[in-house]
Specification:
Blueprint lengths: L3 H19 L3 E8 L7 E9 L2 E9 L7 H16 L7 E5 L2 H4 L3 E5 L7 H6 L4 H4 L2 H13 L14 H12 L4 H12 L8 E3 L8 E4 L2 E5 L6 E3 L2 H7 L18 H12 L5 H27 L6 H7 L2 H11 L23 H14 L7 H38 L4 H10 L7 H18 L9
Antiparallel strand pairs: 1-2, 2-3, 3-5, 4-5, 6-9, 7-8
Keywords: Kinase, Transferase
Protein name: Aminoglycoside phosphotransferase (APT) family kinase protein
Pfam families: APH, DUF6285
């Protein structure tokens, strides 16, 4: 949470910059940090000046974690998208000099509507918007992919599988599920198509929806050059359906999405290629969750939110296994009895008490971000309590499963899969990996096991 002094300083910097742009005094009111954005800060405020009052949004890198090239690409992409008829927030200002507002930034006009996926999917006021939205998202992606590549110079490009492997190796946390996914992706690469400008994070959460439909596309920080079907696959990844059984962002069918795309693009993307990208981006998201957690673990950006995201790796491992045809089979573990050495309340009892305090007292705060972080912290403690209760039995059977394959730890098993010493399609291997992921998810987020796949 930002200290009052930090907010005042940021407000003063924004006033100075906006005054320079307007040529007349501008004051900043109601500056507050929003809950959105684990990788970048998002702030809302009102700018008041001679021309009137205007609601604006600031996105900036966390101070000290500057990515000036990325912010410049994001600003250029928003401008190019606007020129191509894509609905985006009007760009007001951008810059990479940290002296302006503390780090590279961009400022856009506020666009009214909703970004939270569960609200878009469930609230009655968005019922009209939901009808036909999957097709509209397809049409929007076709417009994005038609943006000329030279309209945004410097777009990064990489081999999709090798980029995953490089990221995975840099984390130094071997995961058998990821090794299996990487081998599957390498074997099943789709036929190539012409490169396009790829948004990179097109999903609920980065889209503003109002009661009539799509209002704006946000968050262009992952824009790059590549296979346009990547955006389509990412929109179908299970975690962004928020519990809905519908495969496209919880909103509609793949046919609706691809038919909408074809209306603008003139051709229908190959459905199997889109599914390949769904597997790819599920793997990518697993690694991205672990990367964000590393920012906390390394001390670069201490954050309960980033720490919590690290435990979401298990959700993505589960989704990968579902995509590859390996559903979960729950095998409930016996809870460990509390130690008589420490007495009651036991460690799980204390965790439960703090969790209840966060949910019942802190989450009731009028401070929106504090309430959000309290919910994150309560969810984290819920997982800690489950690990205290179930962890010893989970650990015992995890070791037994590994031993049944002749390995002493997960790292050894992952290395064997990579080296081809064990067939990544071997049913015995897949059963061991599937059981381990199920146990991890039973601690991290047991409700996720019940969501439609």
């Amino acid at each position: 949470m930002s200290a009052p002094g930090d907010v005042a300083e940021l407000g003063a910097r924004l006033e100075k910059r906006l005054t320079e742009i307007a040529g007349t005094d501008v004051t900043v009111e109601h500056l507050r940090r929003l809950t959105a954005g684990a990788s970048r800060e998002t702030w809302s405020f009102t700018a008041a000046g001679a021309a009137g009052r205007r609601d604006l949004v600031l996105r900036r890198d966390p101070p000290g974690a500057d990515r000036p090239d990325g912010m410049a690409l994001e600003a250029a992409s928003i401008a190019a998208a606007a020129g191509a008829g894509v609905r985006v927030p009007p760009l007001v200002d951008s810059g990479t000099d940290p002296a302006t507002v503390g780090s590279p930034y961009l400022v856009t006009a506020h666009v009214a509507g909703e970004t939270l996926g569960p609200r878009i999917l469930r609230e009655e006021r968005y019922a009209t918007a939901r009808d036909g939205l999957a097709a509209e998202l397809g049409r929007t992606l076709a417009r994005i992919h038609a943006i000329p590549l030279d309209a945004v110079p410097g777009l990064p490009h990489a081999d999709p599988v090798e980029e995953l492997r490089t990221t995975y190796d840099s984390l130094d946390e071997p995961l058998p599920t990821v090794e299996i996914a990487l081998r599957w992706l390498d074997r099943h690469r789709p036929a190539p198509v012409a490169d396009a400008l790829v948004h990179g994070d097109f999903r609920l959460g980065n889209l503003i929806v109002d009661e009539s439909g799509l209002a704006a596309v946000l968050d262009w920080e992952l824009v790059h050059r590549g296979d346009p079907r990547e955006d389509l696959g990412w929109l179908c990844v299970k975690c962004w359906r928020f519990g809905s059984p519908l495969p496209v962002a919880g909103l509609g069918t793949v046919d609706e999405l691809l038919d909408g795309y074809a209306e603008v693009a003139g051709e229908r993307p190959d459905e199997e290629a889109v599914r390949w990208w769904q597997v790819h981006r599920t793997t990518w998201w697993a690694l991205a969750c672990r990367e964000m957690a590393q920012r906390h673990l390394s001390g670069v950006t201490p954050s309960v939110e980033l720490a919590a995201i690290g435990r979401r790796v298990a959700e993505n491992e589960h989704d990968l296994l579902l995509l590859l045809g390996h559903p979960a089979h729950e095998d409930a573990a016996a809870e460990s009895p509390p130690s008589d050495l420490y007495g009651r309340p036991s460690a799980p009892d204390l965790v439960d008490a703090v969790t209840a305090f966060l949910r019942e007292d802190v989450m009731a705060s009028d401070d929106e971000r504090l309430a959000y972080l309290a919910r994150v912290a309560a969810n984290v403690l819920g997982g800690v309590g489950r690990e205290l209760r179930l962890g010893p039995e989970h650990e015992r059977r995890h070791r037994a499963r590994l031993a049944s394959l002749g390995y002493g730890d997960q790292a050894g098993l992952a290395a064997a899969i990579r080296a081809g010493e064990i067939d990544d399609t071997d049913p015995a291997l897949l059963a061991v990996v599937r059981a381990a992921v199920t146990d991890r998810l039973a601690v991290a987020n047991p409700r996720y096991l019940t969501l439609p796949g």
